[in-house]
Structure to design on (605 residues):
């Protein structure tokens, strides 16, 4: 039976709450420690650094990282372990269950455009605040926070907005955390509180700000994080009047003061809050909804199977390894997958860790609050296994229990989201390009359109086959390259026609297509067949084949190619041998991009 008490918010800065219960799954505790350590370190550590930072034995670090790599949650690259984008599916489960980002992101982005200032959404997390969305503008001059970053409530603008409703018990927990961690060491996302900093001095100051926030309906942060950084926050309420998140506008003392910020911006921010609250009203109470942790209703039976909407990657190739290994399927097929992995890897695969992590993916949109039975059903795990995993997660503060149902807490975002939400497509693609280049023994690259050119944004070279040296940023005329043709073919008709009309088609070799009609036909074919092969049109002796990279909406955002000397293979061999490898690897890039891009904006370049 699940315990029936409600998880106390606890000190948000701390990773775990005391001695684990006897039923806790020890390998899951270790796996979470490894993921948290990597997250706080920015995403990458050597295995020996990981050993030192976690205090785990080297053999344990090896098994845990090996299992996480098998799950696609991290990449082992020589001596380093690096978090990989697929890990974001855990945080995605929380954000999907919360519903707020999906409903409110667009309004935050519009406000950021209107004001040309950064705008964020944050939720309360214990006595801290955690960001669930960042619409970043004017990047210069200030530290900017990431989705999943946790800040001490008293050093922020949303903090007093949330603390306006705190109980005495919550104030007591906050005071205890302040005493235990006076320098904010438990908040790796913020600069430590300095003696000379503008950090608030004690409870009175924060309590006063919370009281004013209650009266006025807004609060400011006057350089409490770092000199120059100022912010204004307003509460966003659900139709029942409960505060569900805070909307902040972040500015700099070179543009505003703590007094001028509310004077100038309050009407705009209030209008956005009103629009957000209307949206929440129209969205209606979901079966699970956006209600704060601990306050919801159980999900009705008949939820959609886990994984709906997000395509499962076809496979994952660990860097440094030869053949692709199967990526974990949606949780429904988990039991078979972990069983097969165990058979293949033996002691090096920690099944209980894989199962424990997968429990989090049982949650999602319209599956916010689940019973033990529902978690077991969604994951295919035995009830006893699911129960022990949930007990472990609850102990660590990632799952809250109320009235027999479990929910994810904002802390789930601490499993990789801060560094991974800043990933770019070139970063996502690079390990895949390396795997592809290794398999086909030729160079692989990623490029985007830049004006009438293609511009290289990532590249893994095996040998130099071109007379010019290609580096990042190198441009070539789009019409004469395979990646360019893929990108041109992906444009809407009108834009494609406009580009073709204005581009001068110069013969770069005797084989370059220079008649617009021929090029238009070639692009139609690329669109039909889903790839472009360009033979000696850019440079004699050079052949390349490219396919598009599509985002979650199916838009072509980049292209990947393999380039080779024309004498290495016939055109037919290139299509028969290289194209399937290229397509398979790009499917893996897209799978990563779609997981990473579900709630974070991933730049294509
Ligand atoms: C932010 O979104 O970066 C932010 C918001 C509120 C603060 C500080 C920073 O008080």
């Amino acid at each position: 039976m699940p315990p029936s008490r409600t998880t106390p918010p606890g000190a948000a800065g701390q990773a775990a709450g005391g001695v684990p219960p006897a039923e806790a799954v020890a390998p899951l505790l270790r796996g979470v420690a490894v993921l948290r350590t990597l997250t706080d370190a920015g995403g990458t550590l050597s295995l020996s650094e990981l050993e030192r930072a976690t205090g785990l034995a080297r053999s344990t670090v090896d098994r845990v990282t090996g299992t996480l790599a098998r799950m696609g949650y991290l990449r082992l690259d020589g001596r380093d372990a690096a978090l990989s984008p697929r890990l974001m599916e855990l945080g995605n489960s929380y954000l999907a269950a919360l519903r707020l980002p999906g409903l409110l992101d667009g309004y935050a982005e519009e406000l950021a455009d209107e004001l040309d200032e950064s705008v964020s959404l944050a939720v309360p997390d214990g006595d801290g605040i955690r960001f669930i969305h960042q619409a970043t503008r004017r990047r210069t001059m200030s530290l900017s926070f990431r989705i999943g970053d946790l800040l001490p409530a008293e050093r922020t603008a949303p903090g007093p907005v949330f603390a306006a409703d705190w109980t005495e018990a919550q104030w007591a927990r906050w005071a205890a955390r302040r005493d235990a961690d006076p320098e904010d060491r438990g908040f790796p996302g913020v600069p430590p509180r300095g003696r000379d900093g503008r950090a608030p001095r004690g409870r009175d100051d924060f309590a006063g700000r919370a009281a004013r926030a209650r009266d006025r309906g807004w609060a400011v942060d006057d350089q409490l994080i770092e000199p120059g950084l100022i912010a204004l926050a307003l509460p966003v309420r659900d139709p029942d009047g409960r505060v569900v998140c805070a909307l902040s506008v972040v500015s700099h003392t070179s543009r505003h003061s703590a007094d001028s910020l509310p004077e100038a911006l309050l009407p705009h921010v209030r209008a956005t809050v009103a629009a957000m609250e209307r949206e929440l009203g129209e969205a209606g109470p979901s079966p699970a909804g956006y209600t704060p942790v601990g306050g919801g209703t159980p999900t009705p039976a008949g939820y959609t199977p886990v994984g709906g909407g997000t395509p499962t990657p076809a496979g994952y190739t660990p860097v440094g390894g030869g053949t692709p290994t199967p990526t974990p399927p949606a949780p429904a097929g988990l039991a078979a997958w972990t069983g097969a992995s165990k058979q293949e890897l033996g002691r090096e695969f920690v099944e209980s860790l894989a199962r424990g992590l997968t429990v989090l993916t049982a949650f999602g949109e319209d599956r916010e609050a689940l019973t033990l039975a529902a978690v077991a059903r969604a994951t295919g795990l035995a009830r006893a296994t699911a129960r022990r995993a949930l007990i472990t997660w609850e102990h660590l503060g990632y799952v809250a229990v109320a009235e027999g149902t479990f929910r994810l807490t904002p802390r789930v975002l601490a499993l990789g989201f801060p560094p991974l939400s800043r990933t770019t497509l070139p970063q996502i693609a690079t390990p895949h390009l390396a795997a592809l280049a290794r398999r086909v023994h030729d160079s692989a690259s990623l490029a985007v359109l830049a004006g009438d050119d293609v511009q290289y944004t990532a590249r893994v070279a095996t040998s130099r086959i071109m007379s010019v040296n290609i580096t990042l940023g190198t441009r070539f005329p789009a019409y004469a390259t395979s990646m360019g043709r893929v990108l041109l073919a992906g444009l809407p008709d009108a834009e494609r026609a406009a580009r073709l009309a204005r581009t001068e088609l110069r013969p770069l070799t005797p084989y370059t297509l220079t008649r617009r009609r021929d090029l238009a036909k070639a692009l139609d074919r690329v669109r039909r067949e889903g790839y472009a092969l360009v033979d000696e049109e850019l440079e004699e002796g050079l052949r390349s084949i490219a396919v598009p990279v599509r985002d979650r909406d199916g838009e072509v955002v980049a292209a990947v190619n393999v380039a080779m000397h024309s004498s290495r293979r016939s055109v037919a061999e290139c299509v028969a041998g290289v194209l399937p490898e290229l397509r398979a690897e790009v499917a893996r890039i897209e799978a990563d991009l779609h997981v990473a891009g579900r709630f974070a904006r991933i730049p294509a370049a």
About this structure: Residues 425-596 form a domain with the Beta-Lactamase fold (CATH 3.30.450.40). The longest strand covers residues 243-252. Confidence is low (pLDDT under 50) at residues 1-15, 288-325.
